Amino acid sequence: MTRLRNVVCALAVAAVVGMAGANAATNPIESAVADPTRSADDRARDERDHAVEVLTFFAIKPGLVVADVFAAGGYYSELIGRVVGSTGKVYLYNNAGYAKFAAKPLAARIDSGRLQNVVVIEKEVGQIGIPPGSVDVVLMSMSYHDLYFKDDGWSVDPAALFAEVHAMLKKGGELAIIDHVANPGTGSSAAQELHRIDPEFARKDIESRGFKYVGSLDVLRNPADDHTKAVFDPAVRGHTDRFVDKFVRE
Fold first, then answer.
1. Global pTM?
2. How far apart are CA 16 and CA 65, in angstroms?
3. What is the pLDDT of residues 15-41, one digit of tens each?
4. Does residue 55 sit in the same domain as residue 106?
5. Tally of structural domains, the chain
6. For residue 81, what is the domain's CATH number?
7. Domain extent at residue 1
8. Residue 167 burial (CB < 10 Å; 0-12/13-18/19+)?
9. Are 51 and 57 in contact (CB under 8 A)?
């Protein structure tokens, strides 16, 4: 009887473990992140950037159409493309300035053949061409602040960009924002030298453009970050204090 009881207990434990493994395997975000064909650099970034938690917060799932706006080298585009699957689509969008900035990593990603369900677009704001009302989620990862950065060869009109974002999104569609935190009360001024932006300014600005703030995630907040340093400073690069905000198109 004791032996039978031990066998039954072992089978029960195996069943629980098996169910847990099956649940992990069928979670599309966890499966995409765990895919061994992804690059070592991307896999290292996953943990630092809490990719599973962030994409879960933004409710990325199979079948969605996602626009990764100012996607740079395409880290999120590749990952989201794996999540949305063949029934979904990702637009990896850069203008000429972003495409030049990220030319090498983006070319390497494209040449690797790892991009799945991804359409690459390089056009200027006002000419993006994504069909109106066709997108479920627009992601802007560490690029919103660049709407308030000005330099030779770089100038984007925030109103024009948000008009296109608003048009491409379905009503009730989601605008997902990740960006570097600036000190309170600095508005958009820190974008120029530090590539940061005040989260309160961002929320008010985005809400003024036809979107409603619906929540935030704190996994990328870092109280040890020095908000007076530029985000490319080696002392903080890759570990800045970042806000993760979700809005919906009204």
1. 0.89
2. 35
3. 433 444 444 458 999 999 999 999 999
4. yes
5. 2
6. 3.40.50.150
7. 1-34
8. middle
9. no
